[in-house]
Amino acid sequence: MATQPKAVPAIPIILVSVLLAGPVLAGLAGTILPAIGYLPALGHNSFSLEPVRHLFQQPGLLTSVWLSIATGLTASVASLAIVLLFVAGWSGTAAFRRLTRFLSPLLSVPHAAAAIGLAFLIAPSGFLVRLVSPWATGWTRPPDVLILNDPFGIAMTVGLVAKEVPFLFLMTLAALNRPHVQEYFKAGASLGYGRVATFFKIVLPQIYPLIRLPVLAVVAYATSVVDVAAILGPTTPAPLAPRLVSWMNDPDLTKRLMASAGALLQLAVSATALATYLAGERLVASASRRRLVTGHRHLRERAARYGGLLVMVIIIVAMILSLLLLGIWSAARSWWFPSVLPQVWNVMQMTDTLGMSLGLLGTTVALACASALVATALTLWVLEARDHRKSASSRRLKTLVFLPLLLPQISFLFGLQLLFLSADFSGTFSAVLLAHLVFVLPYAFLALSDPWARLDPRFAKAAASIGASRARIFWQIRLPLLLRPVLVTLAVAAAVSVGQYLPTLMIGAGRVATVTTESVALASGGSRQATALLALLQLGIPLAGFTLAALLPALLHRNRAAMRLER
Amino acid sequence: MKRMLAATLGLLGSLMAPVAASAQEAANDPAWQAVLDEARGETVYFHAWGGEPRINAYIAWAAREVANEFDVRVLQVKVSDTASVVSQVLAEKSVGKVSGGAVDLVWINGENFAAMKEQGLLAAPGWAQTLPNWDYVDVENKPTVVQDFTVPTDGQESPWGMAKLVFMYDSARLDTPPATLDALLSYAKANPGRFAYPQPPNFYGTTFLKQVLVSTVPDKAALTKPVDEARFEEMTAPLFAYLDALNGSLWRQGRAFPKDAAHMRQLLADGELDIAFSFNPSDASSAIANGEQPPSVRTFVLDGGTIGNTHFVAIPFNSSSQAGAKVFANFLLSPAAQARKQDPGIWGDPTVLNVAGLPETEKVLFDTLDLGPATLTPEQLGPVLPEPHPSWVSALEEAWTTRYGAE
């Protein structure tokens, strides 16, 4: 290995750096300049603090900021707590395996689709109320109660939790799937610790470092989310991110300067939330250090165990019901309160819409496949190269890779659009692909770097000792051993690509239409049928990806017991 | 106001004098023939709101027609908010992209048009009047076809359809709808939680504010001019007194508002609201036709008239297929396309043409239209109140947000 020229491993790292840091930094510059008053196209050629002043004059700005931080942090911490409690209480049981099968596909549900379905489930005129009206409640008209868009953002927090739990769960599952974890469980049990106590005292301290970055990504995302906030969140005033988007889209173009200042504020908001989370993390760590070694066995854990299970089941049932409702809507023509099921069905229109969406579906699938393949290949290349130069640069690389996840999208997208336009490279498939990669690559890295690190190095050493080349080791040893995580990475990457709305719209100049852009456009109108159908289509692609990722290894490894997931 | 209108009309009359030939002859006009020749084989990216499947289907039909007849390919770019199109063109201008822009034609009006016009984002003035079908446009009786929110269109946008604020209600739940703003207020107070308006800055929410404003403002002439900051408080005092009285009786006690008109219409269908509103007089009939609303839904307007305007298509300054865009705009103005659009089973959008002045063969297309059970006749629709100057929009929205949108 020492004979490898040093320059070779640097290429993928440089490539990834340019691909990620380039757009992000250029995008940020394109946001900062207008924020300090510079936007020549509108005739603003000098610098001033006017946009910032204008921003702080906006009514309810502090409430918006507070809402963003509070709902984002609450949703993230609650999601983490639910996942950990459930994993602690049930990992390794039959119930756990059964629920896992439901949770992984839920990861592929796009945020907006989940929010639309959830809204129709819990609204005062929604499905749950219809189920009990009017026979049990006497309601012939929906009650006038504030369930959605409540000023405290409770509905929004619930929506975010329902969406983030599957993601954090999958990440925790991956972290748990390492050689010695099951032995810790056994050791804990043999020492007389309760199941939950074993997890929190022995297992969690070991796997927490592995799920920390995903949790931080969730915090950053939840404090800057636009679509869930717009559907379920408060509006008087709204959290900062949806207000930002509406300023960016205001026909009064001078608001753009203020919006740019707002984007910087959003950056500060997400940073504050992240800092708060990290501070809380330290506090919990130092406060619990003593409790870890008290030797208290915590055997009375029934309440905790069943509590965790109950919340998890509620989330799964709510999500599945929401999706079923979308399914019913997509075939419904008329469905008036208080009918539990549609009065008039119309499958014809469904097939019409499907027929018209075939082109969109093609573009979406092509984009998803291309960005998943490129992102996964690049990630593998970087990991392979990094193995051969363990240095401080790999830490820096890690930070760099997560930059696009930790920065709110809207804080640099407008700048990114200008960059693509001035390079005369927008409105094409490849431009959109490049933009997707900025957001897809970090997730690919997130999903793959850990299984890669976990791979027993003795395989490669044994191969090298009998003279296998680096390329051969990679293709014939590492890749087959990593088949399952690689396929999951491809599926995650494809799902992330399908979910991209703003980058597709802004970099694609509207010319690259996907199921997602179409579904957002339709959601702005009144046709629930079309909206529901498009949301389902949007869900179908990643779902297919995850199904393939689960089926292929099972088929290929059907004769190899040790390669199965469930051990 | 009247004088201004007359002046504009006079100006237009003189502009149009040389093209007084009928559209048939104009089709043989060499200048237009040149446009047709240039357009052949072009692709037009038409950025249009894509929220309504029936409108998307209509645009797809129109696209097929021009593809067959003129060899122009039209692709609808479905947008959720026209302002994002303004942003796109602005971004292109920011980096000096003066040709080959992504937007060839855009469905637009009001504030978005005013913003694009002011920032020089539109194609040179006058092209709309060169369209052969311009001759059929009802400039005389529909002054808003040349005055978009009081801003002269200067031929930088071509009219496409007429809009008028109408209210919808379910006659199965509500016998006699309120006919005045005061009656509406009493109704809301007697039935708390059954009336709402979308939250400004949503277009429809702002339109409701404008409707109350034009009905209560002490000095109506002030609305035709850019907003005077010093007098804004005084001008809007009656408006906000009205909204204050209404607020507590609104849906969800005014603590949440519907997102937009579509959301409000869904709430009407869900039975949460008793009254919703629309900018399309045939919306209720269309919604009944496609099953979205119960058959008992009907339309009403307020005594004394409601706000109305025209929506248009415009060509950005850097459009890459201007000729193709003109050919499509001209097709959209044709009696056949306009009559089809007015059919509530198709779309239900009122025409911008002067139907009385059409040749007999084309007039019959309109005369035989069934406007549906819930559409009011032109007499019932009452007078059109003009839109205030676009500068009022921001001012109203900001004042509203300060009062109700940021508790």
Description:
Chain B: Residues 1-23 form the signal peptide. Chain B: This is ABC transporter substrate-binding protein. Chain B: Keywords: Periplasm, Signal. Chain B: Pfam families: SBP_bac_8 (PF13416). The complex is a heterodimer of chains A (567) and B (407). Chain A has 24 helices and two strands. Chain A is 74% helix and 1% strand. Chain A is mainly α and 567 residues long. Chain A has a two-stranded antiparallel sheet. Chain B folds into two domains: 2-160 and 311-372, Periplasmic binding protein-like II (D-Maltodextrin-Binding Protein, domain 2, 3-Layer(aba) Sandwich), CATH 3.40.190.10; 166-308 and 384-404, 3-Layer(aba) Sandwich (D-Maltodextrin-Binding Protein, domain 2), CATH 3.40.190. Chain B has helices at residues 2-16, 23-26, 30-39, 53-70, 82-94, 110-118, 181-190, 203-216, 229-247, 261-269, 283-289, 322-332, 335-342, 360-367, 378-381, 391-404; strands spanning 43-49, 73-79, 105-108, 147-148, 151-152, 157-164, 166-170, 275-278, 297-300, 306-314, 384-385. In chain B, the strands form three sheets. In chain B, strands 1, 2, 3, 6, 10 and 11 form a six-stranded mixed sheet that branches. In chain B, strands 8-7-9 form a three-stranded antiparallel sheet. In chain B, strand 1 (43-49), helix 4 (53-70) and strand 2 form a beta-alpha-beta unit. In chain B, helix 3 (30-39) crosses helix 12 (322-332) and helix 13 packs parallel to helix 14. In chain B, 57% of the residues are buried. Residues 1-23 of chain B have low confidence and may be disordered. The chains are: A mainly alpha (567), B alpha/beta (407). Chains A and B meet through helix 14, helix 17, helix 23 and helix 24 of A and strand 1, strand 2, helix 5, helix 6 and helix 10 of B.
